[in-house]
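Predict the assembly for these two chains.
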Amino acid sequence: MGLLAFFRRSQPTASTAKERLRIIVAQERKAQNAPDYLPTLRRELLEVIRKYINIDPDAVQINLEQEDGRDLLEFTVTLPDNGAGRI
Amino acid sequence: MTEIIVVTSGKGGVGKTTTAASIACGLARRSKRVAIIDFDIGLRNLDLIMGCERRVVFDFVNVIQGDCSLKQALIKDKRIETLFVLAASQTRDKDALSKDGVRKVLDELIADGFDYIVCDSPAGIEAGAHLAMYFADRAIVVVNPEVSSVRDSDRILGLLSSKTQRAEKGGEKVKEHLLLTRYNPRRVAAGEMMSADDVKEILGIEVLAVIPESPDVLSASNAGTPVILLEQSDVAKAYEDAVARLMGEDRPMRFIEEPKKGFLARMFGG
């Protein structure tokens, strides 16, 4: 076994795995409890906004949060720089 | 009072059938009457792990469809008096299992006075896996300390808390346990593998047992002997601990740390 292989083999990647899982699991749990209409709502919103501004598909983020017993529906739309995408 | 235990995981190849077979054997060895059912329709394998593949005449689907009685289909284990196996059907019809059909078989086992019914779930989240968990009182989620297995286990935990009879009735929840398999304490110590505590923290449920990675699992399946019956094996001891904990005993976790090598072993690399 070469020296390089030795170092590569002993790289501690467990903490990376744990961190990645922590994030994706939290995200998926949230998605599972979210109402079914969210993906459709997001897609339709995207279509409406795209009539006026050319944005990336991932520029629309929808988040459903629970705060103090209230449901909070949050939209974030990231617009392109300098209005360059304006149609 | 019968307890229905599902052994499930989401991901395939993590050790569900190995675990189901050993847990069922361990319970039966304690003089409990145990029936173990293979829910993997079309991909029957529990019979091989239990070593009774040549004695399968009738299967789970035969019982549901009324081709035979439950008694005719139950295969009595040759090693343990109180253990019975119900094999999966090799039919290609995916819809051969129905909720009512499964309920009928379970009800008959309960009426017959079985103490435990162990349901060996297929991989995935399709109908077979759903039916295997639907009637469960308790779930053993088998997980490898590896990213895809942990993620899939979380999906399964979500289904256990929403798509089971207990969840639908809104009463007492299904009791959930994690069982880690293929655990390599040396790699955990080196930071190359997530620890039992890491997995427990991510998934948020208690660890029933940690099964060390070992060649014994393959030897046992080669021979058709549930690995818990290989007395000298650490894997057998770890499964025996799991069974004891299921029955309410408090036992310290073993096999989560690398065994300390003695002076001679260290000198000679034993």
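Chain A touches chain B at residues 10-15, 17-18, 20-22, 24-25, 28-29, 32 (CB under 8 Å). Chain A has a mean pLDDT of 80.
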